[in-house]
Design goal:
This protein is an alpha/beta fold and 285 residues long. It has helices at residues 94-110, 126-138, 157-161, 175-182, 188-200, 218-229, 247-252, 267-278; strands at residues 45-55, 62-68, 90-93, 114-118, 142-147, 165-169, 204-210, 234-241.
Length: 285
């Protein structure tokens, strides 16, 4: 999860989602063929929540961004609870999504952009994600994967060979803070994934969401900054200020927004955190 506009337009968006929703077309696990058989682009399906075209938000240039449904984390600051479950997406084949991407191919190419697969967590659907990235790469489009890295082990070498950039969301460094943020798991899979990417030579943009009273501790930020500085292929760090733009989605889903009373970080806190990264010779945005 990263900070994005709350309602991607122009896409096949489902209605209310969540437990008991009847509006969304059910979308479960990736469809599989017979043992040993390779599915074609017309057969391999994924759960696609929506898509959008963004500028300078999800990678370089103007990008076609596909938001896939399903995420194993429940980050307290998540602004897209409507992407948590695969059932909140709709079945789309690789060919379906590529048809949409082809419509924007010339536009995004001229604008120096590409295609980003986001979510949710795209690595919950590694076969679908990998095939879309491969097809885009074959067209000469710049490709980016937006991931928390929590499921990085699911990204095989073929998927990463077709990935030009990984937007790696590092939730926190301190173990207790990480659990408070995500309400599950450990940061270790993210760290392993980041190191694997660096060893492969894959460019990385580190993303860190700054939440006052949650992720802003000096020691927590220092840990993330040291990790980023230790990866040779990190091109930039994006410190993303917490916002409440997705709060209305929680209300629509009958959920309580955990950080409803948290205010966005002020300029002094932003400056201090960005300085912590810059002190380690990292390019910070």
């Amino acid at each position: 999860m990263t900070v994005r506009p709350p309602s991607p337009p122009g896409s096949p968006r489902p209605g209310r989602t969540g437990a008991g929703s009847a509006a969304a077309t059910p979308a479960g696990t990736e469809r599989s063929g017979p043992a040993g058989a390779e599915l074609t682009g017309a057969e391999l399906t994924g759960a696609v929540h929506s898509w959008d075209v963004s500028v300078g938000v999800d990678g370089p240039g103007t990008r076609f961004v596909a938001f896939l449904a399903g995420c194993p984390l429940r980050c307290r600051y998540c602004h897209s609870p409507d992407t948590w479950y695969r059932r909140s997406g709709r079945h789309r084949t690789v060919d379906d999504l590529m048809t949409e991407i082809e419509r924007y191919r010339r536009f995004i190419s001229v604008a120096g952009g590409g295609v980003t697969l986001s979510g949710g967590e795209p690595l919950m659907q590694p076969r679908f994600t990998g095939e879309v990235l491969r097809r885009c790469h074959a067209l000469g489009l710049h490709t980016a994967l937006d991931s928390s890295g929590f499921l990085g082990v699911r990204a095989d070498d073929a998927l990463l060979d077709a990935t030009d950039l990984v937007l790696l969301d590092v939730k926190s460094w301190d173990p207790a803070t990480y659990r408070r943020v995500t309400r599950t798991g450990t940061v270790a899979p993210t760290l392993r994934f980041g190191r694997r990417l660096a060893e492969r030579g894959t460019p990385i943009w580190i993303r860190f969401v700054l939440v006052p009273g949650l992720t802003d501790a000096v020691e927590n930020v220092a840990g993330v900054a040291d990790f980023a500085a230790g990866l040779a292929t990190v091109q930039r760090v994006e410190v993303l200020p917490f916002h409440r733009l997705g709060a209305h989605k929680y209300a629509e889903l009958g959920l309580t927004f955990p950080l409803a009373d948290t205010t966005p970080p002020g300029p002094e806190l932003l400056a201090r955190v960005r300085a912590q990264f810059a002190e380690r010779a990292l390019t910070v945005y």
